[in-house]
């Protein structure tokens, strides 16, 4: 019998796990981006871990994560944040081309709670935990005072798209995926959302 996950807020000690989960959810965009910030000889995951652990102003700060556990073991996590309306987070021209389509969709979702990342460690996938994580994200969005939740997913990630559709999300808009060095995806970024 598979136990239902419980959730707790992220802690500084979770930062290494959260960096790995964030990179998995982003399909390696995080590793690429963190690599551009790394000092000579520094691992991209050191950068990601440090940012999640030590930058409270960052949306990916550990305090914004909800850690999923089964019998005390971390199986995955999620985080999201409120998208301001009017949108004032970043200027598109200041971003690398890879990130622009994602931010364009973020702007479309202004006023929503954006589920930025949701991921399970590989050994915990396929056990029915995905819907529980998405349901918890919807609860977090409502608790933050939102009546709509949005997320972004790449079109090649058909398993995630099917999960989100089962959870009541519909497609809102798309933007063409812009590859980054080392990426192997092609297709579109899809903005999906639902009313809460």
Summarize the structure.
This protein has helices spanning 15-25, 29-37, 44-54, 100-108, 130-143, 158-166; strands spanning 6-9, 65-70, 73-82, 113-120, 148-154, 170-176, 188-195.
Written description of the protein model:
By secondary structure, the protein is an alpha+beta fold. It has a single domain, classed as Gcn5-related N-acetyltransferase (GNAT) (Aminopeptidase), CATH 3.40.630.30. The chain is 32% helix and 26% strand. The chain is built from six helices and seven strands. The chain has a seven-stranded mixed sheet, sandwiched between helices. The radius of gyration is 16 Å and the shape is globular.
Major β-sheet, in short?
7 strands, mixed
Using the coordinates above, name the CATH class: Alpha Beta
> What is the total domain count?
1
- Give the overall average pLDDT: 95
> For the largest beta sheet, what order do the strands appear in spatially?
1-2-3-4-5-7-6
Distance between the terminal alpha carbons, to the nearest Å?
30 Å
* CATH architecture term: 3-Layer(aba) Sandwich
Poorly predicted segments: none
The outline comes out as globular
* Rg, Å, rounded: 16 Å
Percent strand: 25-35%
Look up the CATH topology: Aminopeptidase
Helix content: 25-40%
Give, in order, the helices and strands: EHHHEEHEHEHEE
Count of DSSP E strands?
Answer: 7
Superfamily (CATH H level) name: Gcn5-related N-acetyltransferase (GNAT)
Total helical elements = 6
Notable characteristics:
single chain; 196 residues; alpha+beta; Aminopeptidase; seven-stranded mixed beta sheet; 6 helices; 7 strands; globular
């Amino acid at each position: 019998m598979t136990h239902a996950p419980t959730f707790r807020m992220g802690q500084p000690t979770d930062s290494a796990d959260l960096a790995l989960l964030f990179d998995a959810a982003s399909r390696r965009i995080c590793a690429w981006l963190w690599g551009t910030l790394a000092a000579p000889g520094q691992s991209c995951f050191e950068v990601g871990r440090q940012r999640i652990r030590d930058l409270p102003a960052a949306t990916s700060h550990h305090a914004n994560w909800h850690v999923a556990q089964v019998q005390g073991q971390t199986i995955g996590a999620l985080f999201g944040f409120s998208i301001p309306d009017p949108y004032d987070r970043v200027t598109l021209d200041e971003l690398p081309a890879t990130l622009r389509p994602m931010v364009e969709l973020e702007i479309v979702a202004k006023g929503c709670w954006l589920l930025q990342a949701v991921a399970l460690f590989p050994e915990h996938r396929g056990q029915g935990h995905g819907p529980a994580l998405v349901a918890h994200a919807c609860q977090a969005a409502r608790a933050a005072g939102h009546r709509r939740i949005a997320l972004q997913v790449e079109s090649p990630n058909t398993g995630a798209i099917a999960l989100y559709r089962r959870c009541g999300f519909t497609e809102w808009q798309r933007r063409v995926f812009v590859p980054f060095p080392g990426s192997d995806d092609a297709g579109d970024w899809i903005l999906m959302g639902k009313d809460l």
